Amino acid sequence: MKLYDFTLAPNPRRTRIFIAEKGLKIDTEQVNIFEAKNRTPEFLAKNPAGGLPVLQLDDGFHLAESVAICRYLEGLHPQPNLMGKDSREQAVIEMWNRRMELNLFAPAGRAFQHTNELFNGRIKQFPDYGATQRETVTQQIQWLDAQLGNRPFIAADRFTIADITALVAIDFAAGFAGVKLDPALKNVGRWHQTVSSRPSAKA
Amino acid sequence: MKLYDFTLAPNPRRTRIFIAEKGLKIDTEQVNIFEAKNRTPEFLAKNPAGGLPVLQLDDGFHLAESVAICRYLEGLHPQPNLMGKDSREQAVIEMWNRRMELNLFAPAGRAFQHTNELFNGRIKQFPDYGATQRETVTQQIQWLDAQLGNRPFIAADRFTIADITALVAIDFAAGFAGVKLDPALKNVGRWHQTVSSRPSAKA
């Protein structure tokens, strides 16, 4: 197997952390998004949607979409479990992973795209819209702080894919979307410190 | 079990079609989003994220997020299979379901929210941004037409959750986001006619 990756992009990082938590070693190949290497005919033959990451399987099939890649690897390597041990736990973890993805990760991405000069000329930017997305990220992190309370992890009594998505979203928001983690948010702060100290966070 | 539902909203429709395909009967209760009934303290105790649908389990647990609800029901009632029979097929179906959700369904929602007067005063609207989302929907349907070719369904040789998401997205785009299906797109047109003629499409 081989993972088409771009170190600076958040979706590939989700997959890299997942792979590290599983204790797997998978070769990677960098595809530079900033140089539009993911829009070449060669890459589009692998993923016609043009996104990263993409996992090339041993028979040459190309599997795209971060969470789909994680689900495939979870099936091949069930331990440690990161996506749920039975139908109900799988559903609860998916609920939380979707909340972190759709309500936190995605608006952080839109805030970045509409306010950062890297996207000047790539998309039609609406900086005022980007500012509303930044505000959404801020509110969602506050919401997460209230939901977390004293719980050690987001979706279960152990680390799961929902923690990966939230970690990557929050780090991305701080690094690229102009939303630093507010130190007054004690629960998210404690959780963030815990998950950031796992070796996988450096993947 | 009971499904908190709102007939006019697209995410609940995804779940209703899934339930119909499974041949299940689940009681529903309407929660009127237009009257902000999903923002009452009573409803937020069920789903603190405030969205629909929500599935109330027999022990009182509330499961939110359309795809998480589908995954739970798939586990309880594996036949007919709608989300994949093994790890690899599950991953491929999830890849396609995510493409339909993130690249088609979500921009249709943003086009609606930023251009429809129903959202005037509910969110800060950016109509010009909404127009770009409409254009994204148009392009994604063209992309889907090219990807489909002669294939009968989107993610497998049978109807799956990816077809449900795409059907709901395309119908929503036509009905609420100002993007009618272009009759020149023969592959999507044929597929749309096939999936729309299934009894579940009326759910």
- Please estimate the helix content of chain A: 40-55%
Overall geometry of chain A comes to globular
Placed side by side, the strands forming the largest sheet of chain A appear as 2-1-3-4
Spatial gap, N to C terminus of chain A:
17 Å
Number of strands of chain A: 4
> How would you name the oligomeric state of the polypeptide chains in this document?
homodimer
What pattern of helices and strands is seen along the backbone of chain A? EHEHEEHHHHH
Largest interface: pair, residues per side: A-B, 35 and 35 residues
| Spatial extent as radius of gyration of chain A | 17 Å
- Structural class determined from secondary elements of chain A: alpha+beta
Q: What does this entry look like structurally?
A:
2 copies of one chain form a homodimer. The first copy, chain A, is α+β, with helices and mostly antiparallel strands. The first copy, chain A, is built from 7 helices and 4 strands. Chain A has helices spanning 10-22, 41-44, 66-76, 87-115, 127-148, 161-176, 186-196, and strands spanning 2-5, 27-30, 54-56, 62-64. The first copy, chain A, has a 4-stranded mixed sheet with strand order 2-1-3-4, covered by helices on one side. In chain A, a hairpin with a 5-residue loop joins strand 3 (54-56) and strand 4. In chain A, helix 1 (10-22) runs parallel beside helix 3 and helix 4 (87-115) packs parallel to helix 6 (161-176). The longest helix of chain A has 29 residues, at 87-115. The mean pLDDT of chain A is 97. The A-B interface holds A 48-49, 63-65, 67-69, 71-72, 74-76, 86-88, 90-92, 94-95, 98-99, 102-103, 106, 123-124, 126, 128-129, 132, 143, 146-147 and B 48-49, 63-65, 67-69, 71-72, 74-76, 86-88, 90-92, 94-95, 98-99, 102-103, 106, 123-124, 126, 128-129, 132, 143, 146-147.
